[in-house]
Structures
1.
Amino acid sequence: MPLRPELYLGDCREELRKIPSDSIDLIVTSPPYADQRQTTYGGVSVDGYVEWFLPISEELLRVLKPTGTFILNIKEKVVEGERSTYVMELILEMRKQGWLWTEEFIWHKKNCVPGKWPNRFRDAWERLLQFNKNKKFHMYQDAVKVPIGNWAKDRLKNLSETDKIRDNAKNGSGFGKNVSNWLGKETVYPTNVIHIATECNNKNHSAAFPRELPEWFIKLFTRENDTVLDPFMGSGTTIDVANRMNRNSIGIEILPSYYEEVERQFASLQQSEVSLNESSSEHESVELTRRYALR
Ligand SMILES: C[S@@+](CC[C@H](N)C(=O)[O-])C[C@H]1O[C@@H](n2cnc3c(N)ncnc32)[C@H](O)[C@@H]1O
């Protein structure tokens, strides 16, 4: 049964100090973006963003295990007709801090906000920056495999002789493929573009993650009983998903209203587990908890 999440109310710059070094397997978080949502939970100016974030990323570097991964969801907005560069500046400064910038995933928002501008199109994606402490980190790629797709049925029906050997690209790129390697495969690795719709009805938070987003990274970078941290917890999506996937979870939130809401959710979850334990045999209650976790 997953442990009850560890929740902290306060500024993560301070609260992170309570977490032991090298203890976290995965950090998945979305901090306030620069100059956005100032009316709801305060905003950090574009100019001061890197300076504000660096002490936090330094603490994250300390608490992450050497084999762990940090996924940072962030997107720069347009200021006076130009994309701001603070995310790029942040990446450069984090590298100086000791982080490796290992990958960038794109979250394609299948249902992006409608709108029309004279000089740009609708914003349909956000960055998910991956940082690590080492080049070797835990990654369970098989956990996120996707169905191979209908194309394979036709393409693999009649293989040519070239399809059966490694066919090197004619342009000298060094790339090549052996089409017959796909024979008999039902699933393949996904790309680094993740197609997920935003969830407008997700709780009382204006910027809550769709549940599938943390779920995908938790599958990819952790196993059961590993520990997941979200230092900007908001409505607690990451923590809730991690908990239901039998991972330990730690959340930090600065606003008491969000923090209390997450605390309430877990208190009632724990209460229902206690009732289940009282009314069922141990085996039955484990089964029910598992079913609950899979919902
Ligand atoms: C973009 S939201 C995160 C939403 C979250 N991913 C969810 O699914 O609900 C950022 C959250 O960070 C909180 N926050 C802002 N500054 C913080 C700080 N210094 N320490 C901890 N939390 C902070 C805000 O109150 C807000 O709830």
2.
Amino acid sequence: MEIPTRDQIQRAPKVLLHDHLDGGMRPQTVIDLAAEQGYVDLPTTDSADLAKWFTRGADRRNLVLYLETFAHTVGVTQTKDGLSRAAAECAEDLAADGVVYAEIRFAPELHTDQGLSLDEVVESVLEGFRIGTKNAAAAGNTIVVGTLVTAMRTAARSLEIAKLAVRHRDAGVVGFDIAGAEAGFPPTIHLDAFQLIMRENFHITIHAGEAFGLPSIHEALQYCGAERLGHGVRIVDDITYDGDGKPILGQLATYVLDRRIPLEMCPTSNVNTGAAESIETHPIKLLRDLRFRVTMNTDNRLMSDVGMSDEFEKSCNAFNWDLTDMQWLTVNAMKSSFWPFQDRLDLINNVIKPGYAALMAE
Ligand SMILES: [Zn+2]
């Protein structure tokens, strides 16, 4: 089969497991909210210039520098209305890009500067997703959104945040994550939070193996109960080659492959943070060829100036991927979601597979 056209990629059903609410806002919304709230720290109030500023700031080949750009998106989302507008627009934008299921994450502890409680922050975001899902449906785009609650790995509130996630599990929160600077902040610092989640039979994904290597992945899986790996791209450090160029997997890579541990891969973001050299050399190609449970994700649509269709388009062009590859990655993602099993099956059998079958028949 051929490389799909941009139009086909856009219309293809897509599933997104790794996307940050504060990394995916519309530039104009950042400007509007700043004006409403008297936030004066934005570098510019022109939306095209602001979009460029975010991308330039993020694309400095370093995770810590990349994360600096979030000060403004977080700065303007300290109110109920700001949070719920950001969430509603997120659902609408993803649905318009052909995403049929998304899990969006955010760190409630970053949104309490103006006095919102952690519960109010979560409720505002969940309300936003409900509104956005409804608006998207009215525009003819059906999307299901699950919410992931993130604790900052550089802070000491993870147990409190884990409890917060569990409290809202029946209202749309589907799991717990830790994010932020990785080097010096191993997942085991937050062991009590992960153990609480496990005792509650709830779900865990952990940013691991992005800016830091195999020990981070090992701790996430074997100490902290991670069901999925955020990025996980450094698992390639556990793959060597024999004299004929045949890959040899170490124990950890073998475990990740055999246990079908989902890798939430974000190629463009990895190029921005320096976790990968380029899209063309990104390990997603090797890991897909070795049949790891690879999924395709955007991470931060604003900072990386990328949407799901863009992300797929880049990889399809770089690796000659066709609709079969896209469907494989999409079904992988749907299987790996924290949504209930029957509903996952329903989306795979009644939305994703028929969607690709129709495109392939064109
Ligand atoms: Zn991330």
